[in-house]
Amino acid sequence: MGGSTPVAQNRASAGHKLGQLVGDWFEKYVAWPLLSDVAKSLDLYPDSRFNMRSCRPGGKVMWPDLEGNTVDYDVVFELGGTDDKIGEIVAAFETFWRRGIRHSKDKARDDSGKLGAIRDTYPTARMLCIYAAGDFSKPAKDLVKSRGLELFYIPKRDILEVWEENGVTIDYPDKADETSKAELADLAAKALRQDTDLLQRIADSLWDRLGATEKTRMTDVVRARLSALPRNYTIDVVDFVHLEFASRIAVQEFIDRGEFLQQVGDTHREYRYTVEFGDGDVFERSGLSWIELRQLHKNLGRLVKHVERLSQRALK
Predict the structure, then answer these.
(1) What does the alpha-carbon distance between residue 260 and residue 282 come to, in Å, rounded to a whole number?
(2) What is the pTM of this model?
């Protein structure tokens, strides 16, 4: 009686294993190559668990948020990043495959929350995106968009069909028993063991179906997000004064002179830094020290200069 438990557990997890197989394939062979190419086309450094770096030996792509939590992301674009140095985060992506539509709104809520945390922490994190494949309900899509995130979506039908075209069945009726699911999982695993190039060919089939427009569309969206530059800056010295600036350079001149800091005569005052972007986004951080204020503005300035260089290059 006790000896039958492992078999039952293996069968019960067969659907999950099959979903994990497809999800890992989607992240490694579809999302990561696409996003890596997009980042490089914009002179940004792409990072994921598939990219080994001496400055990030742990494997996961981890970034701290305002609450002191360290959150891992599937793909991050960095400005000024290298294999040896962490740069400024300018984009973050979550990718996933969902075979069924159940709980897709919960998934959307979780992932959009992770991405929102990075937006609230870094003024340079301008592009936040969920790249999903499979069944994703309309309420889930609406939730993602309502939180100001980008959503790229490949329908379940396309994924199932390209796997089928390459001789691997990954779909099953919703009421299929665990034995049937286990048989599909075993057949898929066997096919992959016998053909080490199969996963890449399935991805190639998907790209043949999607066409080159998918990469172009993604690149255009990222570029547009980054190109929505700051149009107004505000610095508040908490409980003291409110200052507005029309340009990044005006803020930098104010910070460089340090005259206001000397005037208030108190390096322990707290500052609030607010930036309004051209696409309507607003970044705000409170409780900043003078040094933190200077660093935030310096980091954002690097991104502004980078985008201006990209624009000039496009005009040539």
Answers:
(1) 25
(2) 0.87
pLDDT digits (tens, 9 = 90+) for 9-34: 444 488 888 989 999 999 999 999 99
Q: How far apart are the first and last CA of the chain?
A: 75
Taking the domain 2-226, which CATH number applies?
3.40.1350.10
Report the interhelical angle of 213-227 vs 32-41 (nearest 10°). Answer: 50
| Cβ within 8 Å of residue 179, ≥6 positions away | 11
Q: Whole-angstrom Cα distance, residue 275 to residue 273? A: 7
Q: Which two tokens stand for residue 44?
A: 């940004």
> Which residue from 76, 25, 79, 63 is spatially nearest to 205, judged by alpha carbons?
25
Asked if the model's pLDDT at residue 2 lies above 80, the reply is: no
| DSSP for residue 134 | E
Helix 198-210 to helix 178-194 angle (10° resolution) is 100
Neighbours of 67 (CB within 10 A): 9
Contact 221, 150 (CB under 8 A): yes
- Cα–Cα distance between 96 and 165 in angstroms, integer? 22
Q: At what angle do helices 198-210 and 213-227 cross, to 10 degrees?
A: 70
